[in-house]
Design goal:
2 copies of one chain form a homodimer.
Chain A lengths: L5 E5 L4 H12 L4 E5 L12 H5 L20 H8 L2 E3 L2 E7 L4 E6 L5 E5 L2 E4 L3 E3 L12 E2 L4 H12 L5 E5 L3 H12 L3 E5 L11 H13 L3 E3 L4 E6 L5 E6 L2 E4 L2 E4 L3 E3 L2 H5 L23 E3 L6 E3 L4 E3 L4 H15 L13 E5 L2 E7 L2 H6 L4 E9 L10 E9 L5 E8 L3 H13 L4 H5 L15 H13 L5 E2 L1 H10 L4 E4 L3 H6 L5 E3 L2 H7 L9 E4 L4 H12 L5 E4 L9
Parallel strand pairs in A: 1-2, 1-7, 2-3, 7-18, 9-16, 10-11, 10-16, 11-12, 26-30, 27-28, 27-29, 29-30
Antiparallel strand pairs in A: 4-5, 5-6, 8-17, 13-14, 14-15, 19-20, 21-22, 22-25, 23-24, 24-25
């Protein structure tokens, strides 16, 4: 065994164990060691909110294989033939000697682990902004299993009826749902004008609308000034730019950043995103050192730039690639599309690629379409609405982004669009995708295909649209235009947009004289399908300044 | 209006109305006429089984827009500006005069409709094999809404406690579920050795297993000899090669074929699949005549050959393309992957591309992988199993087929794989797909990614597999080999394969002497994941003839 390859992996949560397991499968002889600072390892970090909410009852379920075997050091030794040093911190990489210095935290004992190949999978840390009072008791961050334990303990003690969540990102949203499920009232405080910047503003507004509907207080464009404690040093309120709100627990989740200190100290190149620079083999600037997971920089192939994307799905894939290459089995990682899924109460939400705003910021000439439709035929029981926004590049006709929100099956469409973007498909190709159809699963023309067809109509100059936020801006500016509702009288009764005139589609040919010819005409219906029909009728009658309201009433978030 | 384009569409169900509507939107001036033999039109044919089962209560829901407007001739006239001639048969195309001869069925009146562009969307008809007794009362086929009415009437009358369904294809399976939901006992009679030839034999066996579990009698390799009637001329039994079975209702659903008589009589070219030959513009051999939907031949881009694929999803897309081109707006249809979805009781099933058998029949060197896993993390409530079989071309490493069966979300994976096959992705590219991950939706490494990775391992010579039907054949032939179960003792107790020895994975390194070195070793566990781990351990110890049982116990259908 003297000549067997020595592989040392720093980090025992996602990418690290994956890399180690892959290396083991490819090289039964290698000596493989995982160094992990914490006691627990190989847990499903993304499952922590569901453990806090009680949806996942047993904490060990997050650290066990599907058949219930705990992934502890003993498991790694016996099943995988991998040595785990937990509660052990990696303190320094000696690249010249090819040794890793580690310290056993309970005893303070140090040693040097020689390596042939080193894999850094040190993950990411929550950002802890300098908010006065952030050291009070019951001001929490969520990273480790122990953090979740503490959170769950407070939730089950019923001592925190009011919780403030600082930050309207992914973790903030998942924790809002978890805390609400525990019976506490949640206030979300977000500094930016919208939650979830992974969405365009009007798509995020749909999520905000839903959260308010279920009783969450959402404060956007709001700054946390300080956190106030009682005499025992426990949180009692938060003071924000929108006022003071009582809270017995505050979660700070304003974002996370890659853990790169070890790599930086070793002189490895850190990329513009703040992650460790790696090539497509997951190799750092030192060819014997790999990095994988949240600490490693990603390349977004839609955006064409480096990015930070702390997702378990990506970490696992990168870990596999790093583990393969470390033992000489060449594999590449092709980068990310930024695909993300998020459940917010009853809403399924997801996105991939670029938002319209992100694309415009990159100088891309954008065309977007919003389609609102049931996820399966309206006549099939259990059909639920989804709203998709598709973004294309006007120059290439390529699909470059998708966002989805709804109680229906959003994620299937995100995954299909992600696959299409990976293949650099045009919207014409997406519209022709032969997606599997049967009434329990989708419409004959799936909502994604509909969306792609709307984009094609827009690209071909057959149709113009206006987004809900653009229409709202027109209202706010007091602009003069015709807003035409072509729904049925029954639909009109339930809800209508302000200042709109009403002519049902079937009556439009006969009553067209009621529509001013010299003004911009914006047409809407429930989903924008009849509005598109109406625009074509108006075009045939000589109207040349018509637009549909993208997504219709279903996608109207205000 | 004298110079406006005259478009005549034959067929008013799926592709026809779609083509007409698209043409109208692009050309507000065109004179557009739909000719439909039946009274009802623009209905969701695929929804008929759910209407029969009572899941869809109101028949009109199948013929209404999502907001409940019936798509009758009045709707087409008022909303679309399209003339519908229903109960009108297209009897002859006069290509020289560019006129369509039609006959109004209730009155027998004939007339000639001049056209500039003709679109044939005559659909398909059930095949009616010459079974003695197939003209008895209560021997039904399912095509039109009226057929479904009759079926539902018989089901709600409770006069048919025993129903025989002849043919184990898509319609047969959907109707088996519908009839069972109505409380009748179903016998399915299939001439071939398996139901659902869209699947490989062992995947179809999983569906058969499920059907038997819910009480359906499935007879494969069984021929219907005759249908026997009582004195009133009503069905009372069916005589098959496997015996006589009482039945008060017989559904004949042995397949359907394209309706091409009108096109054939007009001298249009009929393709090898039996459908009307069309180019990618959906143009027939007469450039002024288009065909779309079930009557038109498809090109399968995975198979590279012509095929017949009667699916509403394809019909709608083709209708759109035909309607566009008919008015001079050039569009292409890129062919089909053969993606199909089917719900069979609690099972979600689907497929696309080629089965392993179909690929071998085409001379392709095939490698396949079967992966069984929960559709989301095992710790997340509501996780359900799915079993995917992926097929790749050994020469190109391209994914060329997928099949899926399970109570979990199969169809998402089918659609992603279809999109990947459309882009001719290799399994390496599929394994790197950045699919959206969050615990409510999928594992960090989605089951599809796992499947692609197994394929990569097989392609790279790291792993060999054996399919359940191949293992069964070994049992049946009495071959000598070691069957090694590496599951836990608790799992072993619930079910095990015959003649297998048992060494839990964690004990394998220590007890390897119990595994014969000179024989083929086939390893299994619940899903094949630990079996793969075991094979790598054995490989490290010098065993060079090991295989995993593809899909493990979860995918074992016998």
């Amino acid at each position: 065994m003297a000549n067997s390859l020595r592989i040392v992996v720093v980090g025992g949560v996602a990418a690290g164990p994956k890399a180690a397991a892959r290396a083991r499968r490819l090289d039964p002889e290698a000596e493989i060691t995982i160094v992990e600072k914490d006691r627990l390892l190989s847990y499903a970090g993304c499952g922590l909110p569901y453990y806090i909410s009680g949806l996942v009852e047993n904490r060990n379920d997050l650290m066990a294989t599907p058949i219930g075997v705990l992934r502890d050091p003993d498991f790694f030794a016996k099943v995988k033939g991998i040595t785990v040093l937990n509660e052990t911190e990696a303190t320094r990489i000696d690249r010249a000697a090819k040794e890793l210095e580690v310290r056993h935290l309970p005893t303070g004992a140090t040693k040097r682990l020689p390596y042939d190949k080193l894999i850094i999978a040190t993950g990411a840390e929550p950002i802890d902004p300098p908010i006065p009072g952030n050291d009070l008791q019951n001001v929490l961050r969520l990273k480790r299993v122990e953090d979740a334990d503490r959170f769950r303990e407070l939730m089950t003690s019923n001592s925190c009826p009011m919780v403030t969540i600082v930050g309207g990102g992914l973790i903030g949203m998942e924790m809002t749902e978890a805390v609400t499920a525990c019976g506490s009232a949640v206030t979300v405080v977000e500094l930016l004008p919208q939650i979830l910047t992974m969405f365009d503003v009007e798509m995020a507004a749909l999520v905000e609308q839903h959260m308010r509907k279920v009783g969450v207080r959402v404060l956007t464009s709001t700054k946390i000034e300080r956190i106030v404690g009682d005499e025992q040093g426990r949180v009692k309120s938060v003071v924000t730019s929108a006022g003071e709100f009582p809270a017995q627990l505050v979660l700070i989740s304003v974002g996370i950043r890659p853990n790169v200190q070890l790599a930086r100290d070793a002189g490895l190149i850190i990329g513009p995103s703040g992650g460790i620079n790696v090539n497509e083999y997951m190799q750092t600037s030192d060819p014997d050192i790999y990095a994988a997971g949240d600490c490693a920089e990603k390349r977004c192939f839609v955006r064409g730039t480096a990015c930070f994307l702390p997702l378990g799905s990506v970490a696992n894939k990168e870990g596999r690639v790093a583990g393969s290459n470390a033992v000489g089995h060449i594999e590449r990682f092709h980068g990310v599309a930024g695909a993300t899924a998020l459940k917010v109460f009853e809403l399924n939400t997801g996105r991939a690629g670029l938002t319209a705003q992100q694309a415009r910021d990159l100088g891309i000439r954008v065309v977007s379409a919003t389609v609102a439709a049931p996820d399966k035929p309206h006549y099939y029981p259990g059909a639920e609405p989804i709203i998709l926004k598709l973004v294309a590049d006007r120059a290439t006709r390529q699909l470059i982004g998708i966002q989805g929100v709804g109680t229906g099956d959003v994620i299937k469409r995100i995954d299909v669009a992600t696959t299409a973007m990976t293949a650099e498909m045009t919207v014409d190709e997406v519209a022709n995708l032969d997606l599997a159809y049967a009434p329990p699963y989708s419409e004959a023309m799936d909502v994604l295909i509909h969306g792609a067809n709307i984009l094609r109509n827009k690209l071909d100059g057959l149709l113009e649209g206006i987004t809900p936020d653009q229409l709202k801006a027109k209202f706010d500016a007091g602009e003069d235009f015709v807003l035409l509702d072509v729904r049925s009288p029954a639909e009109r009764e339930t809800f209508s947009l302000p200042q709109s005139i009403h002519i049902p589609l079937a009556a439009l040919r006969g009553r067209v004289a009621e529509v001013a010819r010299d003004k911009e005409v914006i047409v809407y219906c429930k989903t924008s399908l009849r509005a598109w029909e109406a625009c074509r009728i108006l075009a045939g009658l000589g109207y040349n300044n018509t637009k549909i309201l993208d997504g219709g009433v279903m996608a109207w978030p205000y």
